[in-house]
């Protein structure tokens, strides 16, 4: 009997890192679960990914590469480049079957690098430096295997990311036919529950994927009891399948992982300054500007579902009532969609008279600094699958204003101040309470210190136990 392989599909993580240098919510979930799972010292753990140029899935055994820095996006990108999974060498992959085209386009890129033609590389999400490194050395990819050649009956494939594309689905069906057990993590059902606030075009794709997932999924994983309820109702309504196995693995209430960007503060601290002074000294100017005044922090993609429009209106309501000593509101997140009314409000009021600041690109080190120095955070989303920023806030000993819907009470427990996400007055009242009743805020903070918060090792341990039950 062969030793089962546990294979994590990182296809979407690979695609994300081609164009991004910082993790967002789902990517952080993927890498942190993988990072902690490796620490359990389980043998025969692999990663796999869809390789567009060859139109097939490839796999890599992690025991053979000794890499354990998944929490650091810069190190992960370098690791993936080493094996040609991302990077400049992929520019030529599609020409490998035509030797003339291969050498012609290689010469084109060589000449562009020689002439310092950055634009040619930037369009591909790369740089001249990356191209030169690739031309100097490309590690032999003998450790990369074709997934179809190595999977066997009873192997377990873990799908933690968005795996909606039809190419992926067909591969999962083929694996299922070989007796492979497939575990599908459903982060939320927002595209089918709230299509009006979803990126156009996503809802039909998501619906089709979720319907088809029944045909290959051995066990569904959900990140909250609320998502489990939503998934069960969906499957019962649209597939009449009431027997699908669904397990809940709650996510975390933990601070940001220490990675290269945070460690850099200490390495550059030649004056042996205390950590706080060192981190402030190395912070981006936009971050330093925020630290000058008291502030409340909101973290998450700036899109309609996050409800930042009503959050800013709550600040405006309090200002209109004469509460001019309000702390500033700092909104941190990548720019999202369907948010014209939010930006109209920001432009029309001069960023609410200077009370509101938005940051769309921030390092983990600077975000860590903002969490440490905020009065509290706010997350008033219309709906969430879990709510990582609430857990992150709690891990820093801070409380939050949180919408009382979906999974959010599972994260915030009795440690935060709840509000109605659809009521500006309710949001404003909760903000007012935490700002102007410091004793109440301190009571919540004291309760947080006495509470055992969930961490990534808990998540990895829960996943391991679920996998064991399928042996």
Task: Explain what the structure shows.
The protein has three domains: 6-83 and 142-252 and 460-468, Rossmann fold; 88-136, no CATH class; 260-453, Glycogen Phosphorylase B (Rossmann fold, 3-Layer(aba) Sandwich), CATH 3.40.50. An eight-stranded mixed sheet has the order 4-3-2-1-5-6-7-8. A three-stranded parallel sheet has the order 9-10-11, with helices on both faces. Strands 12-13-14 form a three-stranded parallel sheet, with helices on both faces. The model is unreliable at 260-269 (pLDDT under 50). α12 (260-267) packs across α18 (364-373). β13, α20 (408-412) and β14 form a beta-alpha-beta unit. The chain is built from 23 helices and 14 strands. The chain has 471 residues and is of the alpha/beta class. The chain has helices at residues 11-19, 25-39, 73-82, 99-114, 118-122, 128-136, 147-150, 166-177, 190-193, 202-213, 225-238, 260-267, 275-282, 285-291, 308-320, 340-348, 350-353, 364-373, 388-395, 408-412, 424-436, 438-449, 456-468, and strands at residues 6-9, 45-51, 56-61, 145-146, 156-159, 181-186, 219-222, 246-248, 295-299, 328-332, 356-359, 377-379, 400-403, 417-419.
Return the domain count.
3
**Care to count the β-strands?**
14
The residue fraction in helices comes out at: 40-55%
Q: What summary fits the major beta sheet?
A: 8 strands, mixed
Q: Which stretches are poorly predicted, pLDDT < 50 over at least 5 residues?
A: 260-269
CATH architecture of the largest domain: 3-Layer(aba) Sandwich
> Could you name the CATH topology of the largest domain?
Rossmann fold
